[in-house]
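Per your request, structure below.
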């Protein structure tokens, strides 16, 4: 019994050290997981902000271009109007900005198709604004999906996870 009397406290001390080290390692693991998740959230928020600015820029130019192109007299050529040419150039620059900041090919393609349709309107090849609505809606949907992957909008405007 004498050996347990001196060996017992030493073993309990050793067990306490092992438990403390294990707890410390587990705590570090949890902190690293939380830090990685926080970094992911911050990167996602930064991406959304950057993409939102690019989308708003494209929409601003698209709105100006649409008004200019669809309100000019029928049969007027867009090639002779320097303001319209500048808007088309601005449109393609805004589309390129989306191309650079988008994460998905779906958004890149939708932005290109919408910009292409607007350029057709500027050339006088589109006479009615309704021809622009399909590409515009697909662009909006793709932008939403790129900013909030895995979520979908419902009819009431709320967001649900997929």
């Amino acid at each position: 019994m004498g050996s347990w009397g001196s060996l017992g406290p030493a073993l309990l001390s050793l067990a306490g050290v092992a438990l403390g080290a294990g707890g410390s390692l587990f705590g570090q693991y949890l902190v690293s997981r939380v830090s990685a998740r926080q970094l992911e959230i911050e990167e996602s928020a930064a991406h959304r902000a950057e993409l939102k600015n690019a989308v708003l820029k494209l929409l601003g130019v698209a709105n100006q271009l649409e008004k200019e192109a669809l309100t000019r007299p029928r049969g007027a050529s867009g090639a002779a109007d320097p303001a319209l040419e500048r808007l088309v150039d601005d449109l393609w620059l805004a589309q390129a900005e989306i191309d650079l900041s988008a994460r998905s090919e779906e958004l890149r393609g939708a932005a290109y198709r919408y910009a292409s349709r607007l350029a057709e309107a500027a050339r006088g090849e589109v006479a009615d604004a309704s021809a622009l609505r399909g590409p515009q809606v697909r662009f909006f949907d793709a932008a939403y999906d790129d900013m909030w992957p895995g979520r979908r909008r419902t009819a009431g405007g709320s967001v649900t996870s997929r």
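The chain is about 80% helix and 5% strand.

Regards,
D.
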